[in-house]
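User: Before I run my own analysis I want an independent prediction to cross-check against. Here's the chain; please return only the structure tokens and, at the end, one sentence I can use as a sanity check.
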Amino acid sequence: MEALKKVLGLNLTRATKHVAAHLKKHRLNEPFQDNQLLSLLEYQPRKAINPKQVEAFVRAKRPPYNRPCLYAIVKDVYRDFSYIRCLRKLYGLYDAGRERRLRIIGAFRFEAFRSKGMQKAHRRIGVGFCSSCQRRCKLAIDHSGKPFAQIVDEFLENEGLELGSVAVAGRSAGEFRCRLMADRWCAWHDKHAKFDGLCRSCNSAKGSGGYKHRV
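Assistant: Structure tokens:
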């Protein structure tokens, strides 16, 4: 453990930056071998992937967001590998309750991404002028009215639900197990969400406007 920390960094922040920079050296969709990642796999919270069965690692885009994600290849199957969770476990900062909460919120985002309103926004907002800094570039979609977290909270309150009671399927991005709830959530989201286009810098800086989940 201490030997691995010495390589990765003295704390979680440094280790996360180290691994992220290390992964960027590898091209998308090109399998590679990596002893550091094999060692990190030993700290999986759920032990879902057997390090001895890993043939290689690969970075590939994952729908619906199409962002580069890390996979371990086991018997020619891509298995999602969350190195962030492994790092939290390694540095003693993994909290199962927090991870479940983040996973459920991630499912809300996943379902909202597939909603009619969001898909319409994607077609409308592409390359243009950032509504904040006015720089012309490829724009990210921003919830310009209520923050996304507030829309989630109000939906849960309207449904009489607690966040932890929402059943989610899938190991990583996740989606609702109940498709009827998914339909109700997408309709609620589209009714209350307003969208605008921001450059990546302004979108990252804005965050949630200070709003935090009540749940």
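Sanity check: Residues 96-206 form one domain.
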